[in-house]
Amino acid sequence: MIIGLTGGIGSGKSTVARAFETLGAPWVDADDVAREIVAPGEHALLAINQRFGDLVINPDGTLNRAALRTIVFNDPAQRQWLESITHPKIRQRILQHLEELSARGAPYVLLVSPLLFESGQHALVNHTIVVDIPQELQLSRTLQRDGVSESQVHAILAAQLPREQRLAKADHVIDNSGDHASMMQQVSRLDELYRRQPSA
């Protein structure tokens, strides 16, 4: 059984995923996979290099994310091309990782993805959890953690599904605005629920 875990920026997805992991449920992070498929030697990086030139490649051969972001952020057609190259590869690699984790005998596995609904990755999972916090808290946590400007956080928020829509799509919600104990209690409850269900 695969559980999709998502939430807005700064909501504490990784913290919640680590809480599930302490109970025996491993996880795959879609962001990690997105970085994996553009590592040196990967086909996606070669394609990106061919299209945009060495401007998007660092001296050590890795992808210059900032340069690529600038290009695709300002040009929807280029972004569409990039997504057509990367999204199928991300999906394929996610499935591979999920299968490997399931084969190790985990009761269920998590797919942690900030864009679970937006990217269509929710189609890969049996149930969805949204980690939710109020937007003001999202803003303050992200500013504190990432050292980015307020306008950058608002741009990221704008690229994600509005909070109400994300909550409406969730099978389960974890309110992460309280303390660690409150979050763990909610995780334990869901863990028991998933363990009781036959894998679908």
TrEMBL record:
GO BP terms: coenzyme A biosynthetic process
Annotated CDD domains: DPCK
Keywords annotated in UniProt: ATP-binding, Nucleotide-binding
Gene3D superfamilies per UniProt: P-loop containing nucleotide triphosphate hydrolases
GO-annotated molecular function: ATP binding; dephospho-CoA kinase activity
HAMAP family in alphabetical order: Dephospho_CoA_kinase
PANTHER family: BIFUNCTIONAL COENZYME A SYNTHASE-RELATED, DEPHOSPHO-COA KINASE-RELATED
Protein name from the UniProt record: Dephospho-CoA kinase
